[in-house]
Structures are given as C-alpha cells and as structure tokens.
C-alpha cells in the first residue's frame, strides 16, 4: 500500500468538495488532497470534457452511481447521483437558487450557531457571481457565474407556463431567491455560461489547479478512515493502482448525502446495532448517522400538446434553443405557515423514442417525512440501501400539500396560452378529480426533486441525532469534518446546489481556524 501526507484530505470532488478545495488553496498554503471516485476531465479551457456534461440544455444520463431506492412493494426508483469531478453540479439542471432567509434562520434557532442568514450573507457573495446587480438576494463577487434566463430565451412550454401563471394572478418575481412576495413566478437564475453547465470544478477548482499545494486523485474511491481514539490518522482508498493510504492532519468528507454517511459507517461511526450486524467494529455509536434523509417530494403531470405546440418544440430543438426547465412558480397550500410551500414548473422530458413529453412538476418544499440510508456491507463497491420514505409523515401533511400543488398546476392550465398549448391532460387525467383519487395518484407516482439532504445532521452535542457540530466537525472526533448536503438539518425551500457550495466554503474556513488553534 502506498502512503502520502497532506494537511487536509477532502473526500469527494462534488459541489461542496470542489468549493472546499478551492477555498483552502486560494486562502492558505496548506497541502490539500482532493479524492474523487469519478473521472476528472481537467480545466474547462483544455477541452477534454465530454459535450454531454457541458451542454446545460439537457440533463446527462452518464457518470452516475446507479443508486436506487428499494420500496416496500419491491419496486426500485432511480436516485441519480453524479460520479465525476464537480459531482451533481456536473449533471444537474443548473437552477441557481438560495434558500429563504427564514430557512437558514431556522437552522440557527435550532442550535446551529453561525448559520443564520445574516451570518451566511457575506459567504453568498463569495460563492456566486450573479450577472444582475439588482438581484439583491444573489451573490456578487464570488466564483460561480449565474444569470437569469431572459424571456426571449424561453422555449414554448416554459413561456406558455409563465404567461398563464401571470394571467392567473401570480406576480412576476424579480428573483426566486428573495422572500417577497412569497408567491409568484419567474425564470430562474442558472449557473450557465453560453450553453455550458458551469459546474463546481470550473468555478472553484480551475483557478487553483496550477498550485503545487493541490493534489487531485480521480478514479479513487474512499473506503474508510483509520481512527485512533478521537482522531483519524489516515484515509484508505481504492484507486486504479490498488490501495492507497492518505495521511493528513484534517479530513473533510464531501462525498455527498449517501457517500459521507457510508464512509463514516465503514469507519465505525454510526448506529451501533447496524454496524455490529455488518461485522464493523463500533468506534462511536452515533445513532443519527444515515438518518434524517429527506428531499422535496413531488409528482409529475403529463400533457399531450397541441400540434402547433409540438411543432414549436421541434423547431426550438432544431435551433438549439430548447431547454428542459427554465421557469418556477412558488405557490402556497392551505397548510402553508410561512410564505410558500410549493414549487410548480413546466418540464420537457425526452423519451427513449426521441419524443418530447410536456410535463409539469409539483414539489412540496417543506417536507416532514424522513427516511434513512444504511450500508449493505462493508465493501465500498456496494450501493447503500436507500429508504427515502417520501410521504410517510404520520399526519399525511406532505401528501396533502402535494395534492394541492397538483390542483394548482391544473388550475394554471385553464388560462391562456397554456389552455391552447395543451390538447389533453394525460396524467393523472381529467377524471382524477376527487382528493382521494389524487392522493392515490400522488402516492403511486411520488418521486423527489433530486435534492436529498440530512444524513449527517448538523446540531448541538445535546441532540443525540446530531452527527456534526455547527463547524462541521463530527461529534466525538477531533479532526473529521463533513461539508456537504448531508449536514443540512432541514432542507431549504430551494434547489440545493448553491447551499452545498456555501457549506463547502464555510466548513473549509472552520478547518483552517481549527488548524490555527492547533498551532
Ligand atoms: C439530476 C439532478 C438535478 C439537480 N438539479 C439541481 C438544480 O437545478 N439546482 C440545484 O440547486 N440543485 C440541483 N440538484 C441538487 C444538487 O446538485 C445537489 O444538492 C448538490 O450537487 C449536492 O452536492 P454535494 O457536494 O453534497 O454532493 P455531490 O455533488 O453529489 O458530490 C459528492 C461527490 O463525492 C464523490 N464520492 C462519493 N462517494 C465517494 C467515495 N467513497 N470516494 C470518493 N468520492 C466519492 C461523488 O462521485 C461526487 O463527485 C440536482 C441534483 C441532481 C442529481
């Protein structure tokens, strides 16, 4: 086994991992090692990136871990997670939204000091470089370029939705990251330059790639940490050349919502009973590891377009102007306690036959249901057991909100120009009207927004379910940190990519501070 020494080893080169590595290299002279299981195609300007990953107009289908949720009825639902440098920012829809100030304030109120919106605001300016100076809830001065989709860029399905929502009385929002007014509709900001999906590696890693202090191991899967009392001494990895031992003073896990808890559990930190069942020596019985898994649950409605709308989409596609998703409506159910609790948006899905399906998605942005992720065994090559348990809350609140979202989407279709763009509602279909039938539809087709979070929840040591403290340090350890979607205690009412990048930057700063204190 080969061994190497670093100040900080970062495990997982995704949205947060690249942001953390970039931050450490740009602000310190620490020797940083970034370990990524997928390939690294190098700086964007060298031209080795596959076009499929660059083209932001359509979501790529490759470079995926191949995970799936296994449901009680035996069915499996794919859970996309990218396996490539940049992580999910390399294959996502590029919607660049921040959570509402109240969402982050709730984290702080629950004991995560330093995570209130006012604390995070300066970091937002260090993460994002938004092209619109008047977008006051976006960042200005950071590394990730974003801009709003202009009306003249909207493809026919997006434009029809936007105009119908306005006709239905929803105000046009200046930006989807600001809280006021809570309900409304707008094209979203996107981390897209020309047509290029500007992933986390381009934004944060490329500017520091030439520094000798940075080492990137791609094609290298982290297995487990070696722990001596409360400190990790090394990370054991598997790469093309065999097993690798990386020795460091600090370790930051950024392997994402499934990868980070899996590495912790393989290292002996996790629910004691579960680890014992798998024959893993329990170093720290931490019951919260892998728990609190949640996402925005949602359903898809499908529509048959009018012949004219179908022709327009084909024409948009020929001109290279077709995008799957560009507009979001924020709505409020009757159960909403704080501004809005729904995202409704139009989406174009390409079928295997190359046809475009006209869809509308509805997502519940304030989910209460919680699932979990568990290990299948101690081999890092095994996919984890993912139990999302969407719509499982005991009061059936999540499904009630979702059904109201479907009714809202259907209401929008009665306004022009949607009314004449749609020939027929295919799913759930106009005959599915009663609340009970809509609930059956929602339960049988529910999926999620691809924003899973929470499996290494941040919280004070007094909370037995908390896995990391508000600096990102794993409770009970001295030098193991987590900095990705897994530490989010409660999902914000927004897409999660920007928040994950911010987490990477903020925890990197905490690690620098901890190293300074160590001397
Ligand atoms: C299909 C899809 C569409 C989305 N659309 C949007 C959107 O439009 N806007 C938005 O804001 N959010 C979107 N999201 C969500 C957003 O992209 C994620 O929340 C965010 O990227 C998560 O960042 P992360 O750093 O926590 O994890 P990731 O970005 O998943 O990074 C984890 C990295 O760790 C690596 N890794 C995992 N295990 C190991 C291991 N054992 N060893 C080494 N490396 C490992 C992975 O390969 C990956 O590169 C979308 C997500 C998906 C999947």
TrEMBL record:
Residues involved in substrate binding: 449
Glucose-methanol-choline oxidoreductase C-terminal domain span: 367-504
GO MF annotation: an example: oxidoreductase activity, acting on CH-OH group of donors
Residues in Glucose-methanol-choline oxidoreductase N-terminal domain copies: 7-297
Cofactor: FAD
Keywords: FAD, Flavoprotein
Similarity field: Belongs to the GMC oxidoreductase family.
Protein name per its UniProtKB record: GMC family oxidoreductase
């Amino acid at each position: 086994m080969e061994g190497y020494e670093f100040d900080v080893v970062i495990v997982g080169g995704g949205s947060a991992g690249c942001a953390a590595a970039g931050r450490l290299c740009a602000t310190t002279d620490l020797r940083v090692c970034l370990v990524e299981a997928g390939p690294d195609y190098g700086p964007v300007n060298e031209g080795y990136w596959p076009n499929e990953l660059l083209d932001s107009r359509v979501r790529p289908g490759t470079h995926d871990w191949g995970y799936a949720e296994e449901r009680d009825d035996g069915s499996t639902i794919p859970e996309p997670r990218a396996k490539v440098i940049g992580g999910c920012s390399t294959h996502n829809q590029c919607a660049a939204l921040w959570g509402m100030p109240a969402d982050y304030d709730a984290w702080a109120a629950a004991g995560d000091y330093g995570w209130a919106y006012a604390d995070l605001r300066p970091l937002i300016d260090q993460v994002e470089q938004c092209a619109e100076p008047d977008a006051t809830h976006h960042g200005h001065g950071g590394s990730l370029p974003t801009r709003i989709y202009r009306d003249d860029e909207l493809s026919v399905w997006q434009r029809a939705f936007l105009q119908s929502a306005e006709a239905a009385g929803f105000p046009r929002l200046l930006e989807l990251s600001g809280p006021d007014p809570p309900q409304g509709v707008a094209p979203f900001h996107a981390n897209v330059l020309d047509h290029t999906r500007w992933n986390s590696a381009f934004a944060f890693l490329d500017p520091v790639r030439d520094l000798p202090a940075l080492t990137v191991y791609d094609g290298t899967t982290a297995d487990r940490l070696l722990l001596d009392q409360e400190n990790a001494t090394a990370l054991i990895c598997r790469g093309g050349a065999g097993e690798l031992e990386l020795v460091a003073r600090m370790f930051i896990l950024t392997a994402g919502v499934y990868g980070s808890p899996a590495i912790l559990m393989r290292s002996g930190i996790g629910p004691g009973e579960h680890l014992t069942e798998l024959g893993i020596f329990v170093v720290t019985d931490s019951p919260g590891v892998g728990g609190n898994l949640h996402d925005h649950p949602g359903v898809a409605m499908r529509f048959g377009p009018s012949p004219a709308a179908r022709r327009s989409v084909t024409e948009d596609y020929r001109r290279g102007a077709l995008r799957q998703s560009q507009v979001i409506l924020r709505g409020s159910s009757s159960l909403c306690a704080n501004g809005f609790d729904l995202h409704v948006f139009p989406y174009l899905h390409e079928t295997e036959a190359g046809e475009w399906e006209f869809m509308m998605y509805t997502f519940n942005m304030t989910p209460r249901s919680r699932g979990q992720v568990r290990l299948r065994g101690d081999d890092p090559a095994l996919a984890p057991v993912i139990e999302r348990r969407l719509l499982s809350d005991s009061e059936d609140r999540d499904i009630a909100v979702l059904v109201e979202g479907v009714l809202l989407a259907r209401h929008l279709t009665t306004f022009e120009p949607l009314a004449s763009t749609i020939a027929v509602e295919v799913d759930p279909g106009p005959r599915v009207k009663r609340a009970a039938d809509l609930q059956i539809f929602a339960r049988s087709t529910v999926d999620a927004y691809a924003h899973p979070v929470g499996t290494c929840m941040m919280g004070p040591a007094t909370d037995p379910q908390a896995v990391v403290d508000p600096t990102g340090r794993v409770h009970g350890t001295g030098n193991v940190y987590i900095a990705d979607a897994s530490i989010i205690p409660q999902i914000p009412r927004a897409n999660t990519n920007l928040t994950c990048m911010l987490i990477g930057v903020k925890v990197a700063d905490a690690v620098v501070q901890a190293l300074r204190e160590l001397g």
